[in-house]
Structure formats: C-alpha cells, structure tokens
Design goal:
Blueprint: E1 2-8, H1 13-22, E2 29-35, E3 43-45, E4 48-50, E5 55-64, H2 69-80, E6 91-97
Antiparallel strand pairs: 1-5, 1-6, 2-5, 3-4
Amino acid sequence: MKLITAIIQEDKLDDVREALIAAEIGRITVTRVDGHGQQQTTEIYRGLVVVPNLIPKVEVKIAVNDAFVDTAVDTILAAARHGADGKPGDGKIFIAPLEECIRISTGERGGEGI
C-alpha cells in the first residue's frame, strides 16, 4: 500500500478529481494549503509590486494498493499539468509507503480497508 500526496494548483482540482474517478479511484482527501516552490507570482497592492510569500494550493491524498500506484500517478500527471509541457507551479507528487490502513466502520485492515 502507498500514500500518494499531490500538491496541485487550485484550478486543477476538479480536473484531477474527475480523472481519478474515471480511473476508478474514488476515495480522496483534499486540503487547502499554502506554499511556494519555483513558481513566482507578483501582485500589485496599492500601486506597489508585491511578491507574496505563500501561494494557495490544494493537497490531494490518496491511499492505494500497490497495483493502483502507476494509474493514480499517471492520472494526476495528465490532469494537473497546464498545457502539453506544463509550467512552473503545476505541483508535485509524493509517494510514501503506507504501513497500515484500518476502516473504522468495519475494522477491515490493509488493502481491504482502503
């Protein structure tokens, strides 16, 4: 089992969610987050150019069985990218091992709990 965490731009959330559902991955957790990486934006505030420290993003977490890792990652890559080549700030995907998953309502564990 793996935990896939994707940090994506806010405007791509619906595209990613719909693409994951089409790929038969329907259980996701979404959190609004702020952060920055290589993406640089500027805003004008009271006539001055300001570079904000943190940019609004969306964090999507998905717990999947090992067989669905490549499907989930490929789906997120295709749906979260702006244009064919992407652009800075499109986001990142992290994959971490998931030691255990327990469904509270039934007590199912492991892959069946997902």
